[in-house]
Amino acid sequence: MNTERAIVRARTALDQWFVLVVIVLLAVSLFGAYATYSSAAEQTATETKTVEAWSTTGGFDHGATVERENEVFEVGSELTDRTTYFTSISPALEGSFWYTYHAEDGDVDASLELERVTRSVDEDGEEVVEHWRVNETLDTAAADSFEPGEELDASFSLDVQETANETDRIEESLGGSPGTVETTIVASVSKTGVVDGDPVDRTETYELVVDTDTDVYTVDGPAHEERPVDETEVVETERESVLPAPLGSTLLFVVSLLALGAVVRAKATDRLAPPEDELKRVRREYERETFDDWISRGSILADEEPDTRIELETLEGLVDVAIDSNGRVIETDDDFVVVDGETLYAYAPSSGTDEDGEDDSGGPDERGSPDETDGDDSGVNDDDSERNLVPDDPTGGDGDDDVNDDGTHSGDGLDTGEAADACE
Question: Where are the transmembrane segments (predicted)?
């Protein structure tokens, strides 16, 4: 019964505050949609990554011709791409440097310079201290509109023995030389133009180190070195998540949207507010429960019924008679009665009329005994009871009537506010 009253009150409140309810539900659904979208968007993160855009490749080819007779190699034979050569039989190191680049599209102006660098250096931890240097240009090359896949090359020839002699002369002229003397073939490649739609202006160097300290000389340098050209780009990555979006915001959006649709549909079909007969029935049932302490279930034998019968318009009035006569209200199958001597006071719920004068014959078919707690008993529905006991609004009212333990009444009547309190 309390649940039924709560439902009636809720429906009445939704009908009375329909516009405000629609606005609130619409705002909640929009908030849920925004929260769901924002949560889903947060699962996609923006990161800056370094990617390989294009690449360059360069390398040295080298060799030496046997110039003197020996017991191993024939004179005139070629020793190629070795790490060690013999100074006495093959003093001249000859070779070349080649260069290319790989990209989807490119148009650059390229220049290549081969240079011999002899210098004296000391290493102090990670720092290299250079004491003196001698440079000599060996060869140059250039290419206009240098495209991907094309090759730019230059050659060199280094007399290792003469270079060693030159080093001795420099040290002698300096009166000695600190550090270590090293000889390097340096290839410098400069490019200016556009590669894959991006402007390019860069210089790369490759080194071939020649060590001439002993009767042999060693060569160390790249034969085929590929260098990627990296670029940074902004990419979107998806974060791993158990749910496609937080469950709370999704449920908030769906539930509020469904509730909004249900309320609007119920209002449009006149099913939002409870029917008037249902309101009256709830009022009567509540009134019956309110006076339950003064009502007993029973019957009056026909031969014992007093001759004088007075019809009362409200159950409240009948309860007042029972209080004044120190009796009880007897609930029969058809009405409520109080016997006071030779007079029978009666109230029949079906005899009341509503405010429009229409007959209100509603009410339960069965009335529970006063010991039952389900409250499915019939009550009054006449004008006075609707006005004083149960106002038209089941969600609240101004009445304050109740029956005290001493049999007196407080207030002017029972209202729906009390009925609402009973529902809570």
Answer: 17-37
